[in-house]
Amino acid sequence: MADSHTNDDLPACGLADLSLQDENNNIDAASPNGMQIDPPEEHIVEPNSTESEDVAIINPESMDVDAPVATDRTLAIATPVPPFHALQCVDHGADEAMKELVLPPLVEEPRILEDVVSTWEVEGWRTMSKKERGPVFQAGGYPWRILLFPHGNNVLDQCSIYLEHGFEPNKVPDNWSCCVQFSLVLYNRNDATIFFHHTAHHRFTKEESDWGFTRFLEFRKMFNIAWEGSDRPLVENDSANISAYVRVVEDETGVLWHNFNNYDSKKETGYVGLKNQGATCYLNSLLQSLYFTNAFRKAIYSIPTQTNENMDNSAYTLQRLFYQLQTSPVAVGTNELTKSFGWETRHIFEQQDVQELSRKLMERMEEKMKGTEFEKVLPQMFSGKIKTYISCINVPYESSRVEDFWDVQLNVSGNENLLDSFQDYIQVEKLDGENQYFAGDEYKLQDANKGVIFMSFPDVLHLQLKRFEYNIEKDMMTKINDRYEFPEEFDASLYLDKDADKSESWEYELHGVLVHSGDLNAGHYYAFLKPQKEGWWYKYDDDKVTKATKREVLEENFGGPYKTPGSQLRLSQKKAPVMRPNSAYMLVYIRKSKLDKILCPVTENDAPEHLQRRFEEELAAREARRREREEQHLYLNVKAITEQTFQAHGGTDLTSFDPASEQEPGAPKVYRILRAATMQDLVNEIAADIGQDPKQVRLWIMVNRQNKTIRPDQPVMDLRPTVEECYNRATAHRDPALRVWAEVAEEVLPDGTVSWPTYPGLPNGVVVKNDSILLFLKWFDAEAQRLRGIGHVYISREKKTEDLIPIILKKMNWGEKLPSDEKIAMWEEIKPNMIDGLAAKKTLKASELGDGDIICFQRIAERKSRLGLGGDKQSSTETSKPLDRFEDAREYYEFLINKRTVSFGPHPQKGERETYPEFELVLNTKINYDKLAEKVGEKLGVEPTHLRFYTVNSSSRNPKTAVKRGQQTLGSILTPSGYSQLNLNQMNDALYFEVLDMSLAELDNKKSIKVTWLSEGITKEDQFDVLVAKNGQVQDLIESLVKKAKIPSEEEAGRIRVYETSSHKFFRELEKTYPVISINEYTTVVAERMPPEEAEVTEPGQFISAFHYQTEPSRPHSVPFRFLLKEGEKFADTKKRLEKRTGIKGKSFEKIKFSVIRRSHFSRPQYLNDDDILWDVAMSPDDSLGLDHPDRNRSLRNGVGDLFLKG
Predict the structure, then answer these.
(1) At CA 1185, angle to CA 1182 and CA 1187, rounded to 5?
(2) Whole-model pTM?
(3) Cα maximum dimension of the chain
(4) Which PANTHER family does the entry mention (predicted)?
(5) Dist CA 398 CA 420 (whole Å)
C-alpha cells in the first residue's frame, strides 16, 4: 500500500504520512487519510507463483462508499511492453501501452490535465547510499522526482520507492496542492518485459510532500535469481530502471483526496456546517435544506419572538440557529434547538424519520405564525393540492375530494426514475366487471376510473423517495438500494389535472438532494444543496461543507450497484454486484418561475433587530469572559469571613467554603484582586465593602487544621507583602483562593488608632503574642431550632469557663444575670462530629482552648439540666416531643451532620398533583422508612402506612423503582451503597410519593395493571394503575377501574369492554371471568364503554378489528378498536357511525382515508369509497379496517419512542 517515506516500520498494507511522526520519532503513527491503490486492468495476468507475496485487497463490501477496489500485487504481462521513456530508443506506443496498464481509470473520473513519464537509470544498486533521489522532471507545471531507499526505509528485506515533489527546501508555495495518480515501475534495463510496479493516487501538499511504497519489493526477488517466466533477474549487474508514470488530474472541487486536516469550510466555501450531537445528522441535513430555502429563512425571521426570547421557544431557537449559520465563521451547534423541542439525551442518540420531523417542524412554525401577516407564507411555499377521484366513463358522474399536501411520497421499488414514479402515483385503476362503481340511484353500477391527480404543486416541492418499505417476507422494514434516477429539471404539468391552471410554466429545477448512507438500523445522513440560482453544488456533511460535482450529486446518489469507470458492474467475492449504501431519500425541487422569489437574497439586516442585539450582547459577554480567562493568572480570589456572614451562618465551623453554598447568606464574601496588590490594598477593598475604616480592620489567615476544620490562625500584621506572597506562605492549600477572617476593632483610641487585644505591635515594630485568645461564640436557639453565630471575644487563657457567662449575657442583651431556674450550658465545637461539654470551674487553658476555637452555648431551664454549665445530658424525666426536635446543642450538631433537604413530589403518573403539590423537607438521613413516612404523612395529612416512595432518575427526572419498606435509612435510600451506574444515575435529594388506597401490607397481595381508559370514543386516553387481588378476574378489574377513574358503574352507564392491544393492533378481548394473573405484561390493556348497538351483539363474526396507520400499514399508531359491521350498509353511512364511534370530529375526520388491510397483502391497502359496502369488502376474519391519517404523536419509524416538539 502507498505511504509516506518517513513511516518506516509500517506493514505492507499500512498507510502513513511524513507529518505524523511524534516527538519520539514513532514511525507507527497512522495516516489520517487512507490512500487507495488503483486496481490493474482486467487484462493483467497474475504470475503463476507458489511463493507467498505481499497482497492487500480491499473488499468492496467492506470498503468506504467512494473507495475503489484496491490491489497491490506482483504483475506480469503476456506481451513485451517496454516501460522506459526517452532513455531507450523505442516508439511512443510502448509508453502509451504501459500507461494504460499501470494507470487505470479513477473512480472519481477527474479530468486529466497531463500525463508524463520519466525514467531514472539506476546503477550500482548495492553500493548506493541509504537514500537517493532521481532527476527532477516537470508534470502539471510542478517539479517531481523519484525517491529511492535502495536498502529499504527501516525495513530489512525490501526496497522502498516513493514519488515526491521536486521543490527546493523552503520554496514550496503556501497552500500548494496537486492531485496525482502515479505508478512506479521497476524493470530490467535490457529486457523491459521483466518488470514490477505499484500504483497509487495522492493529494500532494506542502505537508505531505511524498507518497509511495515502503515495502515495494523483496530483495530476494530482485537479485541473482531469475524473474518468473524469464532467465534473467529483475536487477541485473546491479542496474535497473525506474519509471514514474505521473498523471496530474484536475481538483475541480478543491477537496479531491483531501484529508480535511485544518479544513476551514467558511474560508473554502463561504458556508458553515452544523455540529453532530450524537446521531443528529438527519436533523442537520434537513435544517441546512430549509436554511437555503431563503424565503423560508425570511419567514422564520418574521415570527414575532421579541416578547418571548426564551430557549423553550422553538421559533426563537430556530431564528438563532439560522442567524448563526449566516454569520458564524465556524460550525454551529443545534443544542439550543433540540432543547427547545424538549428532547432529552436519548432522543439525541436516536436517528429519527426526516419526513416526520419536517412535517412536525412545519406545523410548529405555522402555529407560531398564526395571527401575523405571514401566517399563509408556509402553505403557499410548501403546500400543493391533490384530488382523489372516481370518475364514471360512460355517464357524467364523479366523486372526488381535494386535499392539501406538503410532500409527495414516491415509490422507488418497481420504478427506474422519478418520472416513472409520478406516472405510477397518478396511475388510473379501472373499476369494471364485478368491481363496477355504484354511481347513485340515478346511474346505478358504472364502469369508472379511480385514481389521484395533482391540482397544483407548491413553489418548493419536497419529494420523499420511499427507500424504506415493509418486507412481508422478512416481516420487517428494509431499505431499497435499487438504482433510481432523478433529473436536474422536469416538467410537472404532465401530472396535473386537465382543469389545473397552466398559464405559467410548471417546470422544476433540482436544488437539494438529501442522502442516506447505510442500512435501516444504522447509517449517516448528509445533503447536497445548491444555494444560488446559478453556481456550485455543495455537500453539507455535519460540520463540513465542500464543493461538489454534478456527478457526486446525481450519479453517486442514484443507488444501485457500483460501476467501474468503464460502466462495468463491480462484483463482490461472491460475484454478486456490490450495491451502493448511499442513495437519495428526499429531493427538493423549486419551480423555475419562482426561483428568484424562493432564493431571494437574505442579509443580516433581515434578521430581527432584537436577535442581532442579543447576539451582540452575548458576543461582548464571551469576549469579556475570554479576557477574564486570559487575565485570570493575574488575579487571585480572596474569600473573607465577616461578622455579618458569621452571624448568618447556621452550620458547623465559621462558614462553608463549598462552592455549592456560595449563594447562602452565611457564605464568605469573594473579592477578585490582583496578585501583585499588597495586603494593604486588600484590607482597603474589604473595609470599603463592609463600610469600615481600613485602620480598624485586621485580616486573619484561615488554615486547615488536622481535624479538617478551617479556623483563623494568626493576623496579618505586615501589610507590605503582596497578596500572592501571603497566599504562598499559607500552608496546606485546599482552596485556590486566599481565605481570611476580617476582624473589626471593637475599641478605638482617641487618636483613631487601634490597640488590638492580641498580637499588639510594640513601638520597635516587633509583634508579640500575649495570653489572650480569640474565641468565637455560637448560640443554639432551642425554641427556633437553629444555630447561629454571635460574634467573637478575647479572653485570657487563665480565665475559667464560667467567666464567659457575663460576656455572653452582654452580647445577647439578657441582662446582668439569668433567672434562678435557668443556666447557660456550653460546649466546644472541636469538629462537626465532636462536641464536648465544658466544665464551669475549669480554666480555658486546662480545656486546651486556643485562637479560633468555637464555643457553643444554650440557655437551659434548671429542671432540664441539673449539671447546668457542664452541658451533660439531663437525667430528668423526658416528656414526649415532636419528631426531629432537639433539646440541646449536641443533638442538633448530630442532626447537622446528617441533615439533607429532600424534595418530594407526587408520582408523575400515579400521583395527584392538584391535591398534593411539591414540597421540601429538611430531614435526618438516619431516620428509617417508617419515620420518613410519618414525617411526609404529617406534611400531607395522610396515613403514613398508605405512602409509597420512588427514587428519581437524575437525567430524565422520571421515577425509578419503588422503595421497599424496611429498616433501611433515608441516607441509604437516597444514596445506595456501591458505585454502580444505576446508583450514579439516581438523585440523592429527591423522592416521588404515591398515596395508596390501602396500606403497603395489603398491597403485597395485589397485582398492579396499567389500564388505558377511553372516555371519548378513542380520542381521549386516560392512564390508570389499577390494583386487583392476584386471584381476581377481569370483572374485579372493571370494578376497581370504576372506583379509580371515578366513572359510573356498568349498572349505571352500560357494559365495559376490556381488551389487549399489541403494537397498536387489536390482540384479543378479555372475558369477564378471565384471571387477571394471566394478563400479558407485554400488551396494553384498554377499557371502554361499549356502544349500545355493540352491547347487544354476541356473534364475534360481526366485528372487524380497526387500527390507525400513517401512509403505510407498517406504521401503525394510536389506539385500535373493534367495529360493528352491518350487512348491506354503504360506506357513506358506515363513516357516520365511525365518526361517532371514534370521537374524531370535523376536518380531522374528513382527512382520514379508510381502507381494508388483508393479511395476505398487508402492504397494499384497498381504499374504500362511499358506495363500497364494508361487509362485502372485508370477507376474511383476518381482514382489518385501516384508518390512514397522520399520527399526532408522530411515532418513530423504528418504534424507539415518540418524536415530539414541545417548544
Answers:
(1) 145
(2) 0.63
(3) 130
(4) UBIQUITIN CARBOXYL-TERMINAL HYDROLASE (PTHR24006), UBIQUITIN CARBOXYL-TERMINAL HYDROLASE 7 (PTHR24006:SF644)
(5) 26
Q: How confident is the model over 187-240, as pLDDT tens digits?
A: 998 888 899 999 999 999 988 999 999 999 999 999 888 888 888 999 999 999
* 8 Å CB contact between 95 and 117: yes
Residues 61-116: tens digit of each pLDDT: 333 333 333 333 223 332 333 333 333 333 456 678 888 889 998 888 899 999 99
d(C-alpha 839, C-alpha 468), whole Å: 85
Give the total residue count for the chain. 1207
Cell of 31: 495516516
- Is 1115 within 8 Å of 1163 (Cβ atoms)? no
Distance, CA of 212 to CA of 216 (rounded, Å): 8
281 labelled catalytic = yes
Handedness of CA 431, 436, 440, 442 (dihedral sign): positive
Local structure of residue 540 (DSSP, 8 states): E
| H helix intervals, 872-960 | 889-898, 929-940
Catalytic residue among 159, 178, 179, 281: 281
- What number is the average pLDDT over the span 423-448? 89
Task: Tell me the CA distances in angstroms from 879 to 464, 824, 869, 875, 1016, one per residue in order.
Answer: 78, 21, 22, 12, 58
Task: Match 484496491 to its residue by C-alpha cell.
Answer: 70
Paired strand residues for 431: 448
Spatial separation of the C-alpha atoms in residues 56 and 918, rounded to whole Å: 66
Question: Is 159 noted as a catalytic residue in this protein?
Answer: no
pLDDT at 316 over 60: yes
Q: What is the pLDDT of residue 884?
A: 66
Q: Write the burial class of residue 316 (CB in 10 Å: 0-12 exposed, 13-18 middle, 19+ buried).
A: buried
CA 871 to CA 369: how far, in whole Å?
A: 72
Q: 85, 258, 524, 907: which is the annotated catalytic residue?
A: 524
Strands 635-641 and 738-744, bridge-based pairing:
parallel
Distance CA 202, CA 17 (A): 11
Q: Are 812 and 824 in contact (CB under 8 A)?
A: no
Percentage with pLDDT > 70 across the chain? 85
